[in-house]
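User: What would this chain look like folded?
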Amino acid sequence: MNKHGTIASSLTNISSSSGMTSRSSVSGSIMSIYSDDFGNIDVRGKIQFSLDYVDKLKEFHIFVVRCSDLAAADEKKNRSDPYVKSYLLPDKVKMGKKKTTVKKKTLNPIYNEILRYKVEKDVLMAQTLNLSVWHNDTFGRNNFLGEIDVELEKWNWTNKQMEWYNLKPRPISAYTMGNRGTLKVALRYIPKGQRGKKTGEVQIWVKEANNLPQVRVHRLDPFVKCFILPDTSKKSRQKSRVVKKTRNPNFNHTMVYDGFGPEDLKDACVELSVWDHDKLVNHFLGGLRIGLGTGQSYGMTVDWMDSTEEEKIVWNKMMTNPNIWVEDVLPLRMLMLSKTVTN
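Assistant: Here's the prediction, encoded as structure tokens.
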């Protein structure tokens, strides 16, 4: 790796679960799904909206009417520049966010806008709609003004009325905690010159997952993607096979990346993400980020070096015990995902 955090062209990767291997040179960037600020504004006010599913179009429609009595981001002038944002959870990444226009200098904005999602109904029924209101700050981070969550499986779809709902504050850990299941993994570092290796190798053995979230009503077909950050190029991505119709898949899949010296391990991080394979769109279930968690890579501050204590322990043990498999069962969590989120 060079000082800019790009893995050199000599680095290759091998992915194996059935004797098949692939080799490629591997660079890239990261995107954050946590781009706003919860701030210290006390939440108040209401939002008026209605929901509908249009079977003919296979579209979910959110008709955002207006908000009332919102908190003031600018206390001196008693005003905000509010807009409404929507996510479908837990598929925040794949489904994407939708937003209304920004209404300037008001605590009682009127929108009359429809936010649309192209989604199969059975997938939609396994989602929770998150509608949140934000103050748009042109020169800084946007400020949270309140939200409401709707479990769509329990929604009364015969109700077409424009109803009012009280906005609620959000716990800081709302989307970083929660039970997303576990992933059993083992990691091993083989230094250059040992076991006949021409370069240092990081080996990742993805064994099994348990209690994955049921994001679809009738089935779950999980698989695992892997990058070693800071690389996120499409060629560097490795995947396990898809294990069908289970929340407790046995992957037994090994991924190998070579070209690593001991110093590179301090600046690298293994990103493992678990997905439900669907014909139209894959659904994010949870992930791990196994590294030192220093917030730094090759002298630069990076968002993705954010490993939990449990994840740090696994990486430290691997670094200090070369040639030995280090195994653990780690809780899956919400991640800032690498930018290459293709199927």
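The CA atoms of residues 271 and 289 lie 5 Å apart. If you want, I can go into more detail on any region.
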